Amino acid sequence: MACHFRRAIAGLISKAARIHEEKIVPLIQVSNPKTSSEGEFLLPIKPLIDIGVLPPDSVESGTAQDTIANLTNRISCQHPVLKAVSNKYGIQFSVDQALLIKSVLSKEQEDREQYGRRSDLFGVRKGEKVVVEYSSPNIAKPFHAGHLRSTIMGNFIAKLHHALGNKVVRINYLGDWGVQFGLLAVGFQLFGSEEALQTNPIQHLFEVYVKVNQAAEEDEDIHRQAREFFRLLEHRDPTALALWTRFRDLSIEEYSRIYKRLGVQFDEYSGESMYSYRSQQVISQLREAGLLQITERGTGVVDLSEDNSMSFYSTVTRSDGTSLYITRDIAAAVDRYERFKFDRMYYVVDKSQEDHFRQLFKTLEKMGYTWADRCHHIKFGRVQGMKTRRGEVVLLEDILNEAQRQMLDNMQQAATTKHMDNPEEVAETVGITAVLAQDFRGKILSDYKFDWNRALQSKGDTGVFLQYTHARLCSLERESGMLVPDSCDPALLQEQQALQLLQQIAGFDQAVHKAWTELEPRHILSYNLQLSHLVAAAHKSLKVKGSPKDVAEARLLLFHAARVTLANGMDLLCMTPVDRM
User: Domain DALR anticodon binding spans what residues (predicted)?
Assistant: First the structure.
């Protein structure tokens, strides 16, 4: 990677601008491979404003260029930094190219699967404790497409933090409590089938739930029976608990099968049910602290406004004194801090719940929990257009099946498809990669329209293109007839395509760093796609077979470094690289 060079450049700037070196290191970027003719590294204008080298209005006033030029003139270059040039982008630095080639390739060989994760950009990391709550479907209901983004986004955040040395706890907080389970229990007595429950439990329970809701519209007694069942459940009636436990266990078993296909694992399955009793303690705590107010309707509220005007408040109890979803969320947050002493806790839930989490975090703060500011809502937009060819809105498993089926069709029709023993498995892996890449393309807060045809194309910026590139690089290594060398003569990698590819490999850590600071997978995806395009260009002109042995080995080492980097980037995005396709 580029750490040695960033630090050398930071040292020069530190002397010229009298700013601590550690502040400068994370600001220095590896230049874009296609626009790096003036230097391999860039210190952009905006970070210079952020650290006080440039005044905030310097760009608008037109003084930025003169200030940057003066700073550049004060820089005394020393090896390995050869030249500093100011331009409209910032300060561009040229370094010893041969040393850069050696450093990047040797660092990749040394770090292997850790390449991109060990970098000065991340500073000295003590290893934080991070809790990530994600996916969180309602039990006894189908796992629909709406859960996809929470599941894969939460998995990405957990994976990234784990890769960077943090201790991560992955929690699936199930919607497994409430009056709706009373309705489901009554519905199962009326419409349930043991045989159907064993065959397809989630689908059958959902059908029962739909039927009982329809019946309840015409028969108020069904609602009365449902409330009575839930009352028994809250009082831990053995018969009611046994039925609820059965529905919950069957749901988790079904969800686990789908999670396995996505490569998703959890450290803990919890749910609202765990906090039904503790939520009453929360209510007592709020009452004793003088925070609980009773409205004219009898509901319990907490005033969260700064001026005690009730302009911002949370409702924490029903009129009968029972808890609500937010009350159980408060209890869950307190329990998690007691157990894990987390440095950060992320709730990966769509943007429609923004007000809920504002209320949750502010209520925790009002209750005196100093760690409330460690809780963060990772909000995301919604997916549109996830339908089968028949035009029906589908369940998540239908999406995975459709991705596999369409990918298998494409592979069977493609002339370049290699022979493989497990085409269905490869189609599944590549199809899931296509779904992930389509989702990770834009800002997570944005809604987006899912497009099957675009997602499954082998050309263009798709997950299929990433898999094709990785498989192609694996094939190149297999068919080269050589072992990948540990090092090479940098003079043998002077072609433009080689230098651009190496420049891209050098900048992997900054893509990981940006994804980590913003919790946006698009930065790593964009990096992987650009890397794949550069691999395609280099593959055409930098032949391994038929070249002199020393040239062939140097190129093989470069392509190997590209493959390892691509695989590492895909792994951080929770994609499984294939070696044949």
Answer: 466-581
